[in-house]
């Protein structure tokens, strides 16, 4: 995410991505939904250590915005799929954790958003199939421990049948 504003184009194959309804977007790719692991790690791994005070400015209708790092004044062009979520944060005290592509309010716990330097389309279909495919199609997944054990058992039984 060290690209400067001048190196990131606002146009391209996904320039209208932000116009889709982010409320039903099911992807955990950067710039979309925050996966619970991403959210927790951005808070718990060295609380405040890698957080930088920032502000959001210049929100465009296609999801591009300017992220201003307050400690250096550096301006970065970033993207998020929900223009409304971005506009709701303009003028607020925010902090960014660039290692986890997360912006959150200074209070730390309220509705973080994920940011990206390159847009990608929203996904509206439920994830199905093997977990590695869900990583590719939806940018991540979240299943219960019970479901994980069921899948492991199912795969072990299928492997025995193949042998």
Describe this protein's structure:
By secondary structure, this protein is an alpha+beta fold. The protein has one domain (5-125). 26% of the residues lie in helices and 17% in strands. The protein has four helices and six strands, in the order αβββαβββαα. It has a six-stranded antiparallel β-sheet, sandwiched between helices. The longest helix has 18 residues, at 145-162. It starts with 35 loop residues before the first helix and ends with a helix. The model is unreliable at 1-20 (pLDDT under 50).
Q: Calculate the terminal CA-CA distance, rounded to whole Å.
A: 46 Å
Helix content: 25-40%
Q: Tell me the fraction of residues in β-strands, as a range.
A: 15-25%
Low-pLDDT segments: 1-20
Give the tally of β-strands: 6
Q: Averaging pLDDT over every residue, what do you get? A: 78
Cα gyration radius (Å)? 18 Å
Class per helix and strand makeup: alpha+beta
Overall geometry comes to elongated
- What is the count of helical runs? 4
Biggest sheet: strand arrangement: 3-2-1-4-5-6
């Amino acid at each position: 995410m060290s690209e400067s504003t001048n190196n990131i184009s606002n146009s391209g194959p996904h320039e209208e991505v932000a116009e889709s309804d982010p409320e039903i977007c099911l992807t955990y790719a950067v710039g979309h939904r925050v996966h619970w692991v991403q959210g927790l790690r951005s808070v718990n791994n060295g609380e405040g250590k890698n957080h930088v005070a920032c502000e959001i400015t210049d929100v465009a209708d296609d999801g591009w915005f300017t992220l201003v790092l307050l400690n250096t004044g550096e301006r970065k062009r970033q993207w998020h799929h929900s223009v409304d979520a971005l506009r709701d944060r303009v003028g607020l005290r925010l902090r960014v954790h660039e290692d986890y592509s997360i912006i959150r309010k200074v209070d730390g716990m309220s509705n973080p958003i994920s940011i990206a330097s390159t847009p990608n389309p929203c996904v509206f279909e439920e994830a199905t199939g093997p977990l590695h495919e869900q990583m590719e199609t939806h940018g991540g997944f979240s299943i219960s421990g019970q479901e994980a054990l069921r899948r492991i058992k199912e795969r072990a039984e299928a492997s025995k049948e193949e042998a």
